[in-house]
């Protein structure tokens, strides 16, 4: 299985087993669907979505076979994952970008070591043997992502890459 982190169960809601999930996953519409499997906690306990609704900043979910708050309390604070092999996503996942080579024209900049989210957009953490740089993953800075050749082409502007 290829687990991808999508968020955390932060609390319960009501007494019928509904949970609040905080998620910044950019393909929520492909995940939060009745019948989709979510994997909860470090043991990846499989739960199937029975219902979904969006409320304020939360993704509200109930699970098949769970209709009591006492049955979901144990999941409070637990991470939530999906199995990449079980869903179809038309786009690039952040996990696909990790360890890709980053170039500006033909000049090697470094490798993507992490992806941060500031609530608005993703930020690529690019490292080489000398430095670490943060590059927003938006069209202004990212020219091209080539998954087949493991290469990201960036638009270099002054001050974007830490050269010290």
How would the blueprint of this fold be written?
Blueprint lengths: L2 E11 L4 E5 L5 H4 L5 E4 L4 E11 L2 E6 L5 H4 L6 E5 L10 H4 L3 E4 L2 E11 L4 E6 L4 E5 L5 E5 L4 E4 L10
Parallel strand pairs: 7-12
Antiparallel strand pairs: 1-2, 1-6, 2-5, 3-4, 3-6, 4-5, 7-8, 8-9, 9-10, 11-12
Mean pLDDT value: 93
Give the low-confidence spans.
none
Instruction: Please tally the β strands and state the result.
Output: 12
CATH secondary-structure class of the largest domain: Mainly Beta
Characterization of this structure:
The protein has three helices and twelve strands. The strands form two sheets. A six-stranded antiparallel beta barrel has the order 1-2-5-4-3-6. It has a six-stranded mixed sheet with strand order 10-9-8-7-12-11. It has two domains: 84 residues, Elongation Factor Tu (Ef-tu), domain 3 (Beta Barrel), CATH 2.40.30.60; 61 residues, SH3 type barrels (Roll), CATH 2.30.30.240. A hairpin with a 4-residue loop joins strand 9 and strand 10. By secondary structure, it is mainly beta. Helix content is 7%, strand content 47%.
Name the descriptors:
mainly beta; six-stranded mixed sheet; six-stranded antiparallel barrel; 2 domains; Elongation Factor Tu (Ef-tu), domain 3; 164 residues
Nutshell version of this structure?
7% of the residues lie in helices and 47% in strands.
């Amino acid at each position: 299985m290829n687990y991808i982190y999508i968020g955390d169960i932060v609390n319960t809601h009501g007494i019928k087993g509904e949970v609040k999930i905080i998620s910044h996953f950019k393909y929520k519409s492909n995940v939060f669907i009745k019948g989709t499997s979510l994997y909860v906690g470090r043991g990846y306990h499989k739960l199937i979505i029975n219902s979904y609704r969006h409320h304020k900043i939360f993704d509200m979910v109930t699970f098949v076979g769970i209709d009591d708050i006492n049955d979901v309390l144990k999941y409070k604070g637990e991470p939530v994952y999906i199995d990449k092999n079980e869903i179809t996503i038309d786009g690039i996942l952040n996990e696909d970008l990790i360890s890709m080579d980053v170039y500006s024209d033909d000049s090697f900049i470094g490798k993507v070591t992490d992806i941060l989210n500031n609530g608005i957009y993703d930020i690529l953490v690019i490292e080489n043997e000398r430095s670490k740089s943060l590059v927003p993953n938006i069209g202004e800075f990212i020219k091209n992502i080539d998954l087949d050749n493991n290469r990201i082409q960036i638009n270099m502007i002054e001050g974007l890459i830490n050269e010290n």
